[in-house]
């Protein structure tokens, strides 16, 4: 029946949530995880991958999606040294394929991964959520932003925020001076042209994550931002293995991106391999905070989103994305157990209703 429900897990050393708990979430299929201590650009060794796989499978969960195998900055910058890192990336793909991995999520954002101005905004009900305030961000320097993210992280590492990169902020910004959107897009296409043949050989699908938020910041280019841009690199390397992680909260932060429509469009092309489903509430043209998954808590219609996923006959992987911090839980911002599990229960409910109604077992 349809999609496979997954849950992001940060590994045995760096996640407060045991696999045994994840196993008890209704309808769960597997976890989405990664090896976090291998420097970006290096090959993930087979034995480390199999060790992780065993841990996950021993807990009764599937190990089929990796989030993320990060892309070395030299590849994004298009430096001559990129070829070495691309070779390494290919080897990592082959090694993951041997362990039965089917989908690799990655992103192509220069310097920073996702960005927020507050990692623990308190809502009236006492829950804490992440917030992005565009006006506030515009007044921060990149250094100040990094400091505030690190301060808000509650001692947990933040996904995509590798410290090595952030230590070289100035020189990185210098290197990106001549890279505009088009150049970055060409560098992405070069990367895909090289790795997709390997993916085809070993049956591993690439699923690029949209930029979060989906617009340029601090003068750095961003390319995974809207339908037009996404279509460019999907068509440039026209293979079903060159696909998307469609993240509702990231892409949807730009009000011009109509999420149900994008799901239908790229879904019909057969290019969505992984769905991240979450809700946000707009507080300004480009400002928002994250909410529970419930439609009435945020600005998105989650029924329409799940219906679009249903209508494309989605058989890929899906996970709740960030959730609130509730019930006194202490965890990595956005990645507590409770609210993401509530999100799963809710998405499962929407799905069951849509499925039964659509198959005419019940009357709309
Ligand atoms: O939860 C998310 O989707 C984001 O927080 C990213 O960290 C995302 O995992 C990466 O950008 C994907 O490469
Ligand atoms: Fe996401």
Automatic annotation (TrEMBL):
InterPro entries: Man_deHydtase, Xyl_isomerase-like_sf
Enzyme Commission numbers on file: 4.2.1.8
EC supergroup of this enzyme: lyase
Pathway: Carbohydrate metabolism; pentose and glucuronate interconversion
Catalytic activity entry: D-mannonate = 2-dehydro-3-deoxy-D-gluconate + H2O
Record flagged with keyword Iron: yes
Entry superkingdom: Bacteria
The entry's keywords: Iron, Lyase, Manganese
Claim: Lyase is one of the keywords in the record: yes
Cofactor(s) the protein requires to work: Fe(2+); Mn(2+)
Pfam families hit by this protein: UxuA
Family recorded in the similarity comment: Belongs to the mannonate dehydratase family.
UniProt function note: Catalyzes the dehydration of D-mannonate.
UniProt-recorded name of the protein: Mannonate dehydratase
Species per Swiss-Prot/TrEMBL record: Caldicellulosiruptor diazotrophicus
Gene: uxuA
């Amino acid at each position: 029946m349809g999609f496979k429900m997954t849950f992001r897990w940060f590994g045995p050393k760096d996640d407060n949530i045991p696999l045994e708990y994840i196993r008890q979430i209704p309808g769960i299929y597997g976890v989405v995880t990664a090896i976090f201590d291998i420097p970006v650009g290096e090959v993930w060794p087979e034995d480390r991958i199999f060790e992780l796989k065993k841990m996950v499978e021993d807990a009764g969960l599937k190990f089929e999606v990796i989030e993320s195998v990060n892309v070395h900055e030299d590849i994004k910058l298009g430096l001559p040294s990129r070829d070495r890192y691309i070779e390494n990336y290919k080897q990592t793909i082959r090694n993951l394929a041997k362990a039965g991995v089917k989908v690799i999520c990655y992103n192509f954002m220069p310097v920073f991964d996702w960005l927020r101005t507050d990692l623990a905004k308190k809502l009236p009900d006492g829950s804490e959520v992440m917030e992005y305030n565009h006006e506030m961000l515009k007044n921060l320097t990149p250094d100040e932003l990094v400091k505030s993210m690190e301060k808000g992280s509650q001692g947990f590492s933040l996904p995509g925020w590798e410290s090595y990169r952030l230590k070289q902020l100035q020189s990185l910004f210098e290197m990106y001076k001549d890279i505009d959107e088009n150049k970055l897009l060409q560098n992405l296409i070069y990367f895909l042209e090289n790795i997709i043949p390997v993916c085809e050989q070993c049956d591993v699908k690439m699923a690029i994550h949209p930029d979060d938020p989906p617009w340029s910041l601090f003068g750095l280019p961003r390319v995974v931002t809207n339908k037009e841009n996404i279509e460019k690199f999907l068509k440039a390397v026209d293979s079903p293995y060159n696909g998307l992680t469609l993240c509702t909260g990231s892409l949807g932060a730009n009000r011009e991106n109509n999420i149900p429509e994008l799901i239908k469009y790229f879904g019909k092309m057969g290019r969505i391999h992984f769905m991240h489903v979450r809700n946000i509430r707009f507080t300004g043209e480009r400002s928002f905070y994250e909410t529970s998954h419930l439609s009435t808590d945020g600005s998105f219609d989650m029924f329409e989103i799940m219906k679009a996923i249903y209508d494309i006959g989605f058989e890929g992987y899906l996970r709740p994305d960030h959730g609130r911090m509730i019930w006194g839980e202490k965890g990595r911002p956005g990645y507590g157990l409770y609210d993401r599990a509530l999100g799963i229960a809710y998405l499962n409910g929407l799905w069951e209703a849509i499925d039964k109604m659509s198959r005419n077992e019940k009357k709309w």
